[in-house]
Amino acid sequence: MGKLYDQLMEDVRFVEGLNACMNCGMCTGVCPAAEFYDYDPRRIVDEVQKKDEAVIETLLKSETIWYCGQCMSCKTRCPRGNTPGFVIQALRKLSVKLGYFTCSEKGRQQFAIKRTVGHSILERGYCVYPDIVTPWMHPEQGPNWESIYNNTEEFMAKLDIPYKKEGAGPLRKIDQKNLDELKRIFDVTGGTEMYDCIEKYSAEKAKEMGVDIENGDYLNMVFKTNSDYDE
Amino acid sequence: MSEQCVAKQNLWAKYQKDIADDHYYYCRSCIRQTFFPASERAYLNIMRDKLGKDLFDDPNHTTCTGIAYHSDLVPMQTTETVIARHFALMTEAGYENMAISCVTSFGLYTELLHTWEEFPEEEARVRQYLWDATRREFKKPKNIAHTSDTIYKFRNEIAAQMVRPLVNVKTGEPLKVVDHIGCHYAKMFPTKGVGGAEFPRVLTGMVDAWGGTPIDYPERRHCCGFGFRNYLVMANRGYSVANSKKKFESMAPYKPDFIVTNCPGCAMFLDRWQYTIQQMEGTTYGPDGQGIPSLTYEEMAGLVLGYDPWELGLQMHQVDVEPLLDKMGIQYTPRDKWTGKKH
Q1: pLDDT at site B77
Q2: Mean of the pLDDT values across residues A161-187?
């Protein structure tokens, strides 16, 4: 395994996203995450471009690389054509690959996203589908959605939406042949490997923390814990 | 109005894009079909029945994995190959143009084609991945449009069939409309969006054509706050609602009659976060303790064309739309809102 910086350079997003940052801070000025969190994309890009392995390792284990919302407002603004959001994507991918993501509270959340959106892709053919937007995980969806969720088939039938039905149309059922193709794409492109990485390192972390991963306690913890707020 | 002001208002005109005229391979959206399934149906109906266009709605089309990609759950090559499969399905169906119903997908399809120009070896690698996984091959699309681009392109043809203009029937005044185009429509590749990142025009062009007045509010270009993992994980949702709140506070002083959105996620967040803020702190942003209705552009087009509001799925919103329907003079049956027309 090469140096961390060299591994980042294997990601085309990193190559495309970083060209001698001059530290103007334009990205931070326009960044919604910087407005909300103690987060500074300018600083991250500056730290990475110095190629200090210890600093990069600290970043890969940090909370800070997980704050970005990937709106990519930074791409529009950088006067030098850099994209801090792309640099973040490369850092996060490497953090997952090396298992460093479990060192931070925000990084550990990858497990919850994998168990929801990640599973939905391979089981339903969509990232999001009505039956995964459960009211207990999504109270912000409000009472109208809760009512629709509790009566989805009946509601969609009244709206003439072919929910879970064969053929074309919104919310149709994706047949097994297409789901199998998706799975084979995941297998040959590293998607399955990344899923497995998240599971493996999360199981190790859950054991280390003494939290049961089998009964859903670990999922519940990473999904809901917000130390910033609790403090 | 001074010449300077007119010139300023027309800055958007420098940012134009080619939008195919007909024959589109339609790409559905995970979020739009989940929260606004009737919008997707209305879009196809408007394009086919009102405008006489040909679109192929392919049952084999799936997610592009975009939400997982921007949550760093899947590698770039996985997303590229899933999209390459969509290119293959389009090629096999005999189409060359794509109409994409999701702004996240639209941004990714655009980013992928740009990446392949910069890194041709990446395209070769993805072609091999696709062959190994599915034995499929593809031609790259000649034209990629977000579905709103196509409605924008034919906005005057829709205006010619208009039943209810965007006008307050009680006052005779144009409705005041705030738009939100969504970050990935043009912030990544400004030349690929009508009006670019700075002078959004794709939605305001519709509003102008259909009799409304667009409002250029200060935080018009600010993110709705989706932030992918910042919404998907409950612990992070403060980020999401705070960004929407910033937008609501920016638009409220202009007293908009409704919000119109480009991106399905934004449409949902700008609706649901109003409910949440009302629950959290009692704040509402519309008149008389009401919210500001947040519509998809398909819903706006459907209302203008005289579609029934409940067939458009407006009951799926948390912010009540009835005050807007009343302003537009739209007749509706309250009972049909939840019982449907088949009761």
Answers
A1: 98
A2: 97
Confidence band for B335, pLDDT divided at 50, 70 and 90:
confident
Q: Does position A28 have pLDDT exceeding 80, yes or no?
A: yes
- Report pLDDT digits (tens) over B84-111: 999 999 999 999 999 999 999 999 999 9
How confident is residue B3, by pLDDT bands cut at 50, 70 and 90? Answer: low
Interchain contact A144–B (C-beta under 8 A) = yes
Distance CA B310, CA B55 (A): 24
Q: What is the pLDDT of residues A120-130, one digit of tens each?
A: 999 999 999 99
Q: Where in chain A is the domain with CATH 1.10.1060.10?
A: 4-106
Q: Is A5 on the interface with B (CB under 8 A)?
A: no
Q: In the CATH hierarchy, which fold is given to the domain comprising B24-147?
A: Glutathione S-transferase Yfyf (Class Pi); Chain A, domain 2 (1.20.1050)
Q: Provide the CA B253 distance to its chain's centre, in angstroms.
A: 24
Query: Options 1.10.1740.10, 3.40.50.11810, 3.40.50.300, 3.40.50.720; which CATH number does B159-327 get?
Result: 3.40.50.11810
pLDDT at A231: 45
- Which residue is closest to A119 within chain B, CA to CA? B68
Please state the ipTM of this predicted complex: 0.97
8 A C-beta contact, residue A107 and residue B268: no
For A226, how many CA atoms within 13 A lie in the half-sphere containing its CB? 14
Instruction: List the 176-215 stretch of A: residues with Cβ below 8 A of B.
Output: 178, 181-182, 184-191, 194-195, 198
Size of interface A-B (CB pairs under 8 A): 230
Instruction: Give the closest-approach CA distance of B221 to chain A in angstroms.
Output: 9
Chain A neighbours among B 205-264 (CB < 8 Å)?
222-223, 225-230, 232-239, 241-243, 246
B269, closest residue in chain A (CA to CA): A141
Equal CATH topology for B24-147 and B159-327: no
> Model's pTM, two decimal places?
0.96
- Which class would CATH give A4-106? mainly alpha
Percent of the residues in chain B that have a pLDDT greater than 90, as a whole number: 90
B234 vs A contacts (CB less than 8 Å) = 137, 223-224
Give the distance from residue B19's alpha carbon to the nearest chain A alpha carbon, in angstroms.
22
**What are the extents of the domains in chain B?**
24-147, 159-327
Q: Do A126 and B30 touch (CB under 8 A)?
A: yes
| Across A50-77, average pLDDT | 97
Q: What is the DSSP letter of A25?
A: -
Q: Does A108 contact chain B (CB < 8 Å)? A: no
Which amino acid, residue B123? E
Residue B78 sits at the chain A interface (C-beta within 8 Å): yes
Cα separation, B7 vs B210, in Å, equals 22
Neighbour count for residue B118 (Cβ, 10 Å): 11
